[in-house]
Specification:
The chain has 3 domains: 71 residues, Roll (Archaeosine Trna-guanine Transglycosylase, Chain: A, domain 4); 123 residues, Rossmann fold; 226 residues. It is an alpha/beta fold and 484 residues long. Helix content is 28%, strand content 19%. The termini are far apart. Strands 17-18-16-15-19-20-21 form a 7-stranded parallel β-sheet, sandwiched between helices. Strands 1-2-3-6 form a 4-stranded antiparallel β-sheet, with no helix packed on it. Helix 2 packs across helix 3.
């Protein structure tokens, strides 16, 4: 079967392989991942996929014709028409699972035991990188890595941007994958060390050290001495058997194609259901890629209070677009379109498949952290590095990243790349960790979800991802205001 109709209500189907005219009723050539009309659709008629409206026909479309940007327009507007109708789906029956991780004094679990250098300001990025490079001899035993996470902010920021930078960096300093953290300041920046400590609140001075470079005669020697102390403390932790319920998994997509919403993303959804059934947590972000998918998301909100927070988050992000003079539907990307995604609604309905069927228990602000087990929504943009950094700051020890086009990208935490199609997996094995394209050749999504759970537990127990193997990791901080 070369065509998949995702929902019985759909009037389009997705070609899982390229169709020649005459194949599967195609009236013309249909590229793989693209849509074919299953019936005649009049001008202005709704295009239905995933059981949802993903656009309107800009011209009459005949059965068997290719349905894409040349004959479809978005239905999105700045106005939200959100409604709440609670739906509860059964979760799978799964046996409790474990992984080998690092139990931290606060009860959280780390899946890595690394040393992190966090600059409070971009001015000391070079010093952070020098410290990371010259102290690699500290890595060994249970100390698994030493990394500097550079960024351009921490000064010349005002208002919300300044506060977001401070909160984001403090959240990373608390992350359980870091066995030791060196917070590195300059001394004259807006984000003073006093501010940072106030944001951090209480901390263990064996685990977090602070260095203001302008106050040190030799900042490299002083930093190296502090890193040695942090390495000694981190070395006191060893892996032990922990319940999977302690895992928080971020869910992200990038370089999506027309198969992402029917292979990789729902496979991640199956994984999410399994982890939540065991008492764990997952986090879904990329708010602009929820625009148009509200009918799928909102019914799963655990109660009306959660629904209202979700609706407010989406409306707030639409306002962020409009206040900057941007259209809310200025998406998908050229690569998305080449892969078969036509409108933002099309992209969004595929993206939110990562959330699975479990209840949405909370809605977190940018820099918010997970406190309730289950599926959490996190406010953040679609940008890969910005949203992945936000997922890490929220407490995700690892990120599941689906892609149809491929990317070498890596977040501050282990990032498991999941291909939507097998050709990508076979071509870019140096980038991709897991192939969900097997759904096209007949593997059941539940089976793929089981395999993905196994893969996640292996990574949580120490197996490196492709991005880790190649040293691909970094952070980016969301900004919306002026730079002084």
């Amino acid at each position: 079967m070369k065509l998949i109709q995702i929902d019985p209500q759909d009037n389009v189907a997705v070609a899982v392989e390229a169709l020649a005219p005459g194949e599967e009723g195609a009236a013309q050539a249909i590229p793989a991942g693209h849509k074919m009309a299953l019936c005649d659709i009049p001008e202005n008629g709704r295009i239905i996929k995933y059981g949802c409206t993903i656009g309107r026909a800009s011209v009459p479309i005949r059965a068997g014709q290719w349905v894409h940007t040349h004959n479809v327009t978005t239905c999105l507007t700045e106005q939200s028409e959100a409604r709440y109708g609670h739906v509860v789906y059964p979760l799978p029956q799964v046996q409790a699972r474990t992984f080998e991780g690092y139990l931290r004094p606060d009860g959280r679990a780390g899946i890595r035991n690394e040393l992190w250098i966090l600059p409070t300001v971009g001015c000391v990025n070079g010093i952070a990188e020098q410290l990371a490079g010259s102290n690699q001899h500290l890595v060994g035993g249970s100390v698994e890595g030493l990394y500097a996470f550079t960024h351009p902010f921490g000064c010349s920021q005002t208002g919300d941007d300044h506060a977001q930078t401070r909160r984001l960096l403090a959240a990373l300093a608390r992350h359980p994958n870091a066995g030791g953290v060196l917070v590195l300041g300059l001394g004259c920046e807006n984000l003073t060390m006093e501010q940072f400590k106030a944001e951090l609140g209480s901390w263990d001075d064996r685990r977090i050290k602070f260095l203001v470079c302008q106050e040190a005669e030799d900042e490299l020697a002083a930093g190296s001495a502090l890193l040695r102390e942090l390495a000694d403390y981190a070395a006191s932790f060893t892996r032990q058997t922990l319940p999977a319920a302690k895992l928080v998994a971020g869910m992200k997509c990038g370089g999506s194609d027309g198969l992402s919403g029917i292979t990789a993303n729902p496979a991640v959804g199956r994984f999410s259901d399994r982890l939540v059934a065991m008492g764990g947590s997952t986090v879904l972000t990329e708010v602009p890629e929820m625009f148009g998918a509200e009918p799928i998301l909102f019914g799963k909100c655990a109660d009306e209070a959660v629904y209202k927070k979700a609706a407010a988050m989406i409306d707030g992000f639409k306002h962020y677009f409009t206040v900057h003079g941007q259209a809310v539907y200025e998406n998908p990307s050229p690569g998305n379109k080449a892969g078969g995604i036509t409108t933002l609604e099309d992209k969004s309905c595929g993206c939110v498949q990562k959330g699975g069927h479990a209840q949405i228990v909370d809605v977190l602000p940018y820099t918010g952290s997970v406190s309730r087990p289950g599926v959490n929504l996190l406010c953040g943009p679609g940008n890969d590095l910005v949203s992945a950094t936000a997922l890490a700051a929220a407490g995700a020890q690892l990120i599941l990243f689906t892609t149809g086009r491929g990317t070498p990208f890596g977040a501050p935490v282990p990032t498991i790349k999941i291909s939507s199609n097998t050709p990508l997996f076979e071509k870019k094995r140096n980038w991709i960790d897991f192939d969900a394209g097997t759904a096209v050749s007949g593997e059941n999504l539940d089976s793929i979800g089981d395999r993905l759970l196994d893969a996640v537990l292996a990574v949580a127990s120490g197996r490196q991802t492709r991005a880790e193997e190649h040293g691909c990791r970094g952070i980016a901080i969301f900004k919306g205001g002026v730079v002084l």
